[in-house]
Every structure is written in structure tokens, then in C-alpha cells.
């Protein structure tokens, strides 16, 4: 049973944008006036937290899990302080949404950077 679950989950962990496309098209089809992109980004962000450490472990045998978690906490702290300075009343839902969307952007660029780094490394090794 665990082997079956890992067989299903492994492609999504290595290629999280399959999940992004799947969620995007499902929400686009089911709900005509929905924010399908936002829902897909939210689902993909959670997967990117696992995907980046797994990908770096697979390619370079280096574990980034703790660094990704610390980065997420650090960004959340900075955005909370900035929000608190701007307005004394903090709307937690809006703050969490900002943190989550910023993490989506950062983790997406990190994922793309890791993939490009692996491709460049492979090309250099071949020549």
C-alpha cells in the first residue's frame, strides 16, 4: 500500500507543476468565475515545500528541508513585522495569503533554478 502511494506521489513531488495544471483546469472547468490560478498556486505551494528538498537530495545528495522551513518562517516573520508597522490591526487571513503567495513565487523560482542548475551541471559533465 505504501509502495502504491509513493508511486502516485513521487511524480507530483518531482514535478509539482503537474498538480498546478491539474488543479487549475479542474477549477476552471467546475467553477466558471473562479480564481483557478490562485487555488492551483495554493495547492502547488504546499507541494513545493516537499519538492525542493526532494529534488536537491536526488540531484546533489544535499538536504535542503530545514533550510526551506527556516526560509518560510523568516519570510513570515518579516511580512508580519512589515504588516504590523503599516497598520496596527493585522488581518490574519490577508497576511497568511500574502505569505503563502510570496512563498509560491520564491519556491517556484528556486525549483526552476535547481532544474536549470542540474541541466547546466549535466551539460558541463558531458563536455
Could you please describe the fold and organization of this structure?
With 127 residues, the protein is mainly α. It has one domain. 86% of the residues lie in helices and 0% in strands. It contains five helices and no strands. It starts with a helix and ends with a helix. The chain crosses the membrane at residues 6-27, 66-87, 99-120. Pfam families: DUF3397. This is DUF3397 domain-containing protein. InterPro entries: DUF3397.
Which terms would index this structure?
127 residues; mainly alpha; 86% helix; transmembrane helix
Give a brief description.
The protein has one domain. Helix content is 86%, strand content 0%.
Please work out how many helical segments DSSP would assign: 5
Portion in beta strands: under 5%
Can you write the helix and strand succession as a string? HHHHH
**What's the pLDDT, averaged over the residues?**
91
| Integer tally of domains | 1
Q: Which class best fits the helix and strand makeup?
A: mainly alpha
Share of helix, binned? over 70%
Output the radius of gyration.
17 Å
Number of strands: 0
Distance between the termini: 43 Å
Q: Main sheet?
A: none
Shape, principal axes of CA atoms: globular
Poorly predicted residue ranges = none
